[in-house]
Structure formats: C-alpha cells, structure tokens
C-alpha cells in the first residue's frame, strides 16, 4: 500500500508565485497599469495570456524567461523534503496540481533536478508559438462554482484516483500540501484518514479555520506547516508506523 502526496506549486513548493515572478523579465520589471488592472477574478489564465503577449511584444525571449525562472526560491526545507520523497518512491506516489503552467513548472523542477520526484503534473498547458511568444491554455472545463474556470483541483484529484483504481492502485492515505484558496475544494473531498497540510498564515489555513468556526469542519485531519521540515517530520513518522 502506498501514500499519495498531492502538492500545490506556487507558495508551496516554491516560495513565490511563478506567474508574478516572470514580470522580472518585463521592461523596468513591471507591467503597465492597464494590463495589471485587467485581471478579473476567476480568469487568471486569460490575464497571464495578455502578460505573455506583452513580454513577447517587448522582445523577451524564451532563454531569458528560462534563466529568470531558474532563480525562483524554493520554500524553506522543500528541496530536502523532495529529496526524501525521491529516496522513498516505493512508498510515495507524488503529483502536482497547480494553476501555474507546464513550461514554468518543468523549467523550475529541472533546474533543481527535482522533476523525477513527481509522477504527474496537472497544470495549465503552455508552449511557445512559432513567433516565440509563450501561450497558455485552460487546463480543463468543469462545473464547480467554487473554483476558477480553468481548474478545479477536486476534479483533477478525483479523476487521478479513479484512473489509479482502474490500474489496481489504491492509497492508504492522501496527504494534500497547499496554501491557497483554490486548495480548499480538493481538501473538502478528502476523507477522515487523509491529511490536509495547510501552510501557516496563508488562505487555505484561514478558510479551514473559518469552516470549523461555522461548525462545518473538513472531514480530514489538518496539520499546519511553516517549513517543509514539518512535512518531512510527519512523513518519517508515517513510514515508521
């Protein structure tokens, strides 16, 4: 029997937002006000498409973007944690479910030689056009009213688990590591034996606390982490059992 680790990416694996980090490539390292103010809630992917057009129009090339993304810092203890998971792949399956994009995540993980830790990455598909512009698409369509229109992480998790069951793989426990508001929907899907690991001081922790106050607590156990060392400590206890 194996454990499934599900990781968010921005502000979880890395200590920044990869989409806002790319703005370091823009002229004067900032976006024009009109572009910055064009974001509409729930439509982040469309907003990032406009950002990538702006970068392309200003002559920002793929290699410059790639170099910039390789400088993004990992969250404290995360590189050690992912190394530990990599050494124990017989016990852990490990996936990423993220609102970033395939290009950024691949660059960042490969630069740190951590890509082989993850069995699958579910995120918005991105690619460079023939003109050298980065383009990004919505991950899927869904009917969840709680999630941004391009990605419902609960749907991704459910479909992954269903596919694994078809292959004869079921998990002793799911451990979900995240920080953001869009991590609440998959956390609500977890069962009582599962664990939600919410980053201390971030939106996910606050939303879970609010549900508990409203006497609508999540079904799974909740552990709060501030460094990935906290997560590693838990995993070490888990495999000792």
Structural notes for this entry:
It is a single chain. By secondary structure, the protein is of the alpha/beta class. It folds into 2 domains: 2-15 and 74-127 and 141-239, Rossmann fold; 19-70, no CATH class. The protein is built from 10 helices and 8 strands. The protein has helices at residues 18-21, 33-36, 44-57, 62-69, 78-87, 102-111, 153-166, 184-189, 203-213, 228-240; strands at 2-7, 92-101, 120-124, 126-128, 134-136, 171-178, 195-199, 221-225. Helix 5 (78-87) runs parallel beside helix 10 (228-240). The longest helix is centred in the N-terminal third of the chain and has 14 residues, at 44-57. The relative contact order is 0.16. The mean pLDDT is 95. Substrate binds at residues 19, 99. Its cofactor is Mg(2+).
Strand residue content: 15-25%
How far apart the termini lie comes to 13 Å
**Spatial ordering of strands, largest sheet:** 3-2-1-6-7-8
- CATH topology name of the largest domain, in short, is Rossmann fold
Describe the oligomeric state of these chains in a short phrase.
single chain
Structural class: alpha/beta
Q: What top-tier CATH class of the largest domain fits best?
A: Alpha Beta
Determine the number of helices (DSSP H or I, runs of at least 4 residues). 10
Order of helices and strands: EHHHHHEHEEEHEHEHEH
Question: Helix share of residues?
Answer: 25-40%
Q: Looking at this structure, what is the CATH superfamily of the largest domain?
A: HAD superfamily/HAD-like
Radius of gyration: 18 Å
**How would you describe the shape?**
globular
Low-confidence sequence ranges: none
Query: What is the total domain count?
Result: 2
